[in-house]
Amino acid sequence: MSKLKKDKEHIVFIDRLIEKYQHHPSMQRVKILKDKLKQEKLEDKSFYQSIKEKRATSH
Fold first, then answer.
1. How large is the C-alpha radius of gyration of the chain?
2. Any residues with CB less than 8 A from the CB of 18 and at least 6 apart, and which?
């Protein structure tokens, strides 16, 4: 079996697992944590962007 075919089957398997267990409490916690991380990443990005802009205007 080719590597590409194995990879596709693996992706399908993972998608099925996610679909099957998406409402499980553990998966809900994972989703909440992922959302928090995304929010923190956006906050960090805007924070560092503002620092970058302040440094650019102070020089």
1. 20
2. 27
CB atoms closer than 10 angstroms to residue 27: 14
Per-residue pLDDT of the chain (59 residues; tens, 9 = 90+): 688 889 999 999 999 998 999 899 999 999 999 999 999 999 999 999 999 988 888 86
| Cα dist from 53 to 19, 21, 50, 57, 58, whole Å | 43, 44, 5, 6, 9
Residue 33 has a pLDDT of 97
CA 16 vs CA 9, 19, 22, 36, 47: distances in Å? 11, 5, 10, 25, 38
Tell me the torsion sign for CA atoms 10, 14, 17, 19.
negative
